[in-house]
Amino acid sequence: MGRRMRTFFSEQPVRFITTTFTDWKEILTSEAYFNIICDSLNFVSEKYQVDIICYVLMPNHIHLVCVFSNPTKVSDYMRDFKKFTSAEIQRRLIADGRNDFLEQFRIGENKYKIWKARFDDYAIRDVKSVQTKINYIHQNPVRKGLVTWPDEYVYSSASFYTLKQQGRIKVTHFVEALGYQSTYGYGHFR
């Protein structure tokens, strides 16, 4: 699977990943669709030994900051995630009677392109950049007018950082994932 504008720092374990649905269509419109994404991210993260340190699931795209035990597996991780979620989203759209919406993704006989083929993948090399990405990601629903405060948005890791509440996707605090427990405290990102 291709990656747009990717850095070739395969040795860098911390990655900022963005992927979007085809034509920026808003697929994540109900809990059932969000659950497909959450369950798949939890599964592939365990399979590839990836710590998710930050995420937001927007109706038409997702952002992740992950720590990979094997950074060369980023493409495999995203391939497995997209392949499974594409099939599950197609099934869900059919079950919900949203065939007209599904037709907008048709690329051939019984073939649909739910996700854009590529994803953005940037290596992050310092703690300050991690904190900047966390803030950016958590502010996404606020910028889009979905909530007033980041921790009000259910499909993000913001409440993990502000309220210490684990959400639907397992999150590892960045100080723990990066081994900075003795240097950095658990701060609020509001």
Write the layout of secondary structure elements.
Elements: E1 3-4, E2 14-20, H1 31-47, E3 50-57, E4 61-68, H2 74-95, H3 99-103, E5 106-108, E6 111-112, E7 119-123, H4 127-143, H5 158-163, H6 174-177
Parallel strand pairs: 1-7
Antiparallel strand pairs: 2-4, 2-7, 3-4, 5-6
Describe the protein's architecture and organization.
There is one protein chain. The model is unreliable at 1-10 and 182-190 (pLDDT under 50). This protein has one domain: Alpha-Beta Plaits, CATH 3.30.70. The chain has 190 residues and is an alpha+beta fold. The protein has 6 helices and 7 strands. The chain has helices at 31-47, 74-95, 99-103, 127-143, 158-163, 174-177; strands at 3-4, 14-20, 50-57, 61-68, 106-108, 111-112, 119-123. Strands 1-7-2-4-3 form a 5-stranded mixed β-sheet, sandwiched between helices. It has a two-stranded antiparallel sheet with strand order 5-6. The protein is globular. Helix content is 37%, strand content 18%.
Gross geometry = globular
Sheet with the most strands?
5 strands, mixed
Our Rg estimate from Cα atoms comes to 16 Å
CATH fold-type name:
Alpha-Beta Plaits
Helix coverage percent: 25-40%
Stretches where pLDDT is under 50 for at least 5 consecutive residues are 1-10, 182-190
As for the number of domains, it is: 1
Strand neighbour order, sheet with most strands: 1-7-2-4-3
Following the backbone from N to C, one meets helices and strands in this order, namely EEHEEHHEEEHHH
Number of strands: 7
Strand content: 15-25%
Separate helix tally: 6
Instruction: Tell me which CATH architecture applies here.
Output: 2-Layer Sandwich
Overall mean pLDDT score?
88
CATH homologous group name: Transposase IS200-like
CATH class: Alpha Beta
Termini gap: 35 Å
Q: What structural category arises from helix and sheet content?
A: alpha+beta
